[in-house]
TrEMBL record:
Residues 61-197 form the HD domain. GO terms for biological process: dGTP catabolic process. Belongs to the dGTPase family. Type 2 subfamily. SUPFAM superfamilies: HD-domain/PDEase-like. GO terms for molecular function: dGTPase activity. CDD domains: HDc (cd00077). This is Deoxyguanosinetriphosphate triphosphohydrolase-like protein. Residues 16-30 have a biased composition (Basic and acidic residues). HAMAP family: dGTPase_type2. It comes from Leptothrix cholodnii (strain ATCC 51168 / LMG 8142 / SP-6) (Leptothrix discophora (strain SP-6)). The keyword Hydrolase applies.
Length: 381
């Protein structure tokens, strides 16, 4: 590893002291705990863009998470960073997502106004710190400081101060001091962006809501499509799926190499001598300016052309209604929830935790059970 990588031998430790594992470093141990968690398994039935019942081949939160981990490890290896920490952060980064993606989050946040609100990134931390129940001595997974820091990608100042009151000098402090997280945390965050931009184009074309030609109105995609056609002219003869895959593969490779080169240049320029020095510097894991602009253009285009597509929006309102009506039903009748949630002291937060942990298909079935209304087709399981 490079001198600026996070070193598990000098980890800042866990909130509850534990004996070291005989064969695994702390970051490997974190990764394994995340993979075995209940919240991780539920990601397989949580929405990315398309609802879980809309097709078997679209990304879910789980497949997205695995893609982020793969990209992060590949880039981290080239930069001399700690791959196990990158993987642990990547595998945990979406554990707090609601059913129905951002539609579910928006509905839950609206219902939680006046009760602290709801934000999936903070909920991911809450999952690993509080909600997982696997160990007799503590709640949560008791992950290392470095993994928890990476999970908390962003945080309002008021929340950071609250965290710091309960955990002085802990993971909330950097938002107060305006310092940076580890390079591994910075990389997991950027790998997330690279992954969802590419796979949302793939899923959008697969769904028929957008076309590759439309996506190639963007120079970033057009350049790689044209290069693929020059090298493999047969792709123009009715092999659109292969052309799409080859275009996206080349785009992903270009972005990965761009991050490696731009970050290596930033590291040479600032020359941090330790992971702690990294925290006092500007963000170092980055795209080049040209690739940053191209990635931003792609995100904006996806928002206009896919995320706001009438067919996607048609599922948004029913999804929001399901979450909102579930929330109201549980607040009115807490006994409809499992006893651990029904008996919790903060009812609204408990209801929020319960709903956020649901898969898409469980939320649909539970809403139908409680209201008698069927807003989506019946789902199996």
């Amino acid at each position: 590893m490079a001198v600026y990588a996070s070193d598990p031998a000098i980890s800042r430790g866990r909130r509850h002291a534990e004996e070291p594992a005989p064969t695994r470093n702390p970051f490997q141990r974190d990764r394994d705990r995340i993979v075995h968690s209940t919240a991780f398994r539920r990601l397989v039935y949580k929405t990315q863009v398309f609802l879980n019942h809309e097709g078997d081949l679209f990304r879910t939160r789980l497949t997205h998470t695995l893609e982020v981990a793969q990209l992060g490890r590949s880039i981290g290896r080239a930069l001399g960073l700690h791959e196990d920490l990158i993987e642990a952060i990547a595998l945990a980064h979406d554990l707090g997502h609601t059913p129905f993606g951002h539609a579910g989050q928006d509905a839950l946040h609206e219902r939680m106004r006046g009760h602290g609100g709801f934000e999936h990134n903070l909920q991911s931390l809450r999952v690993v710190d509080v909600l997982e129940e696997r160990y007799p001595a503590f709640d949560g997974l008791n992950l290392s400081f470095e993994t928890r820091e990476g999970i908390l990608k962003h945080c309002p100042l008021r929340v950071a101060r609250w965290i710091d009151q309960h955990e002085p000098g802990g993971i909330g402090r950097r938002f107060i001091e305006r310092s940076q997280p580890s390079l591994e945390a910075q990389l997991a965050n950027l790998a997330d962006e690279i992954a969802y931009n590419a796979h949302d184009v793939d899923d959008g074309v697969r769904s028929g809501l957008i076309t590759l030609d439309q996506a190639c109105s963007l120079p970033l995609l057009a350049r790689h499509r044209d290069a693929a056609l020059r090298e493999h002219p047969s792709l123009a003869q009715g092999k659109q799926r292969r052309l799409l895959f080859e275009t996206l593969r080349r785009m992903l490779s270009a972005q990965v190499y761009d991050v490696i080169d731009a970050t290596a240049a930033a590291l040479r320029r600032h020359a941090p001598r330790s992971a702690d020095e990294v925290r006092q510097l500007p963000p170092l894991v980055q795209f080049s300016p040209a690739m940053r602009a191209a990635s931003t253009d792609l995100k904006r285009w996806l928002y206009r052309s896919l995320y706001r597509h009438p067919q996607v929006m048609a599922s948004t309102e029913p999804a929001k209604r399901i979450v909102a009506e579930l929330f109201d039903a549980y607040v009115a009748r807490p006994s409809e929830m499992p006893a651990d949630y029904a008996g919790a002291p903060l009812l609204h937060r408990s209801v929020s935790d319960y709903i956020a942990g649901m898969t898409d298909r469980f939320a649909i079935r539970e809403h139908e059970r409680l209201t008698g209304a069927r807003l989506f087709e019946r789902v199996p399981g």
